[in-house]
Amino acid sequence: MSIVISAMPKWRFDASQVIVPEDWDIRFINPSTEKELILACKEADYLLVPASTPEINANVLRNITHIKLIQSVGAGFDRIDTQTAATLKIPVANVPGQNAKSVAEFTIGLMIALQRQILVADWEIKAGRYGEIRKILFKQGLNEIEDSKIGLVGLGSIGQHVARILHSLGASVSYYDGRRQLPETEAQLQVSYKSLAALLADSDIVSLHVPLNDTTRGLIGQRQLELMSPGSFLINTARGEIVNQTALAQMLETGRIGGAAIDVFTPEPPKSENPLLNLSPAARARLIVTPHIAGVTVGAMRKMLQASLENIARVINGQPPANIVNR
Ligand SMILES: NC(=O)C1=CN([C@@H]2O[C@H](COP(=O)(O)OP(=O)(O)OC[C@H]3O[C@@H](n4cnc5c(N)ncnc54)[C@H](OP(=O)(O)O)[C@@H]3O)[C@@H](O)[C@H]2O)C=CC1
Ligand SMILES: O=C(O)C(=O)CO
Fold first, then answer.
1. What is the pTM assigned to this prediction?
2. What is the DSSP string of 117-136?
3. Which of 12, 98, 203, 233 could be cross-linked to 303 through a Cys-Cys bond (beta carbons 3.0 to 4.6 Å apart)?
4. SS in 3 state form for 39-78?
5. Residue 52: its pLDDT value, please?
6. CA 177 / ligand 1 centre spacing (Å)
7. Residue 313, CB half-sphere, CA atoms under 13 Å: how many?
């Protein structure tokens, strides 16, 4: 009998969609403290965690060194102290790329919603201002994606899918991918490399697709927001900590940033005092917020869960796990 502790809640674990071996004992937990998490792991061999919570810090790891695999059911693994896990020889794995198409589609939806003011139109009509908003939007001069310059920060699984869809829509796409240029991918996707500063200054829409790590925490701060083209849009479906929320709120207030779509917050769920949730009505109309659902589709959830369970099965069967992120 293999005991798997799932911090992935039962309501997100659709057993009818995946194959779970009969001799596995999957125990669902919803720990509110480190102590609870450690205690729950005492008898377990494997730990299954969603990509965004709970935090698996050094203290937790030191108390669960018997765990044979920590499996993130997602692309991200930033809530896990992977370095300490490596020192303690606890492998951590993710399921890369499985929700990339879902995030990419959602991102394109946000791009069009921001550029065409879809949510603003919806609010105004429901508030009885059909004629007024129709006139305003006619006069505003809304753009097609084809006429837009789009900057992607991060050209991994998600960034590449976004670029592929944008190419079919005729957009002009540039990217910044940190340490390196990707000549083959550039040719395939017809995207051009820019420095971060140039990308921010030249894009009508900037969309973030980098993992949260030491190089990306605070990557889009006050200075970078000021570099963005006046009236341009920012989309963050990556992680909240990559963007300075206070600076973004200020830029939305002044209208210097034309609009933003935010799927991820610091922390999650956001606190009531979060500056992005306390904007003036005018600035609020420039902001679309969603509850970390860019990757949430039935297909993506099924693929991520299945790949995660298969990875645990590999270890049970004496094979090394796939997609280890902390060698
Ligand atoms: N909102 C949601 O529901 C979801 C959010 N996400 C978030 O999106 C992130 C990206 O996912 P995915 O595309 O699958 O991940 P990938 O690892 O495939 O791609 C990330 C890319 O970002 C690059 N990168 C790393 N550091 C930097 C940097 N400092 N500056 C610029 N580029 C950098 C990586 O380069 P290199 O390979 O060289 O490190 C890589 O090309 C996830 O880590 C997760 O946080 C993911 C899924 C769902
Ligand atoms: O896969 C990820 O990293 C996610 O954030 C899914 O919610």
1. 0.97
2. THHHHHHHHHTT-HHHHHHH
3. 98
4. HHHCCCCEEEEECCCCCECHHHHHCCCCCCEEEEECCCCC
5. 85
6. 9
7. 13
Residue type, 187: A
The DSSP secondary-structure symbol of 215 reads T
Q: What is the model's pLDDT at position 301?
A: 94
Predicted pLDDT at 79: 97
284 among known catalytic residues: no
pLDDT value of residue 178 = 83
Nearest alpha carbon to residue 309 among 11, 10, 33, 15: 15
d(CA 149, CA 170): 10
For the chain (length 327 residues), average pLDDT per consecutive 10? 91 86 94 95 96 93 98 98 98 98 98 98 98 97 96 98 98 92 94 97 98 97 98 98 98 98 98 98 97 96 96 96 96
Question: Measured between alpha carbons, how far is 69 from 179 in angstroms, rounded to an integer?
Answer: 30
Contact status, residue 7 vs residue 37, Cβ threshold 8 Å: yes
Tokens 């693994």 correspond to: 77
SS3 29: coil
Ligand nearest to the CA of 241: 1
Instruction: Give all domains of the chain, ordered by start, each with its CATH number.
Output: 2-98+298-316 (3.40.50.720), 100-289 (3.40.50.720)
| pLDDT value, residue 14 | 84
The pair of three-digit structure tokens given for residue 145, joined into one six-digit string: 């994606």
**Ligand 1 atom with least separation from CA of 296:** 3
Which residue among 36, 132, 144, 268 is the active-site one?
268
Ligand 2 centroid from CA 75, angstroms:
5
142's tokens: 């809304």
Are 174 and 194 spatial neighbours (Cβ–Cβ below 8 Å)? yes
ipTM for the whole complex = 0.99
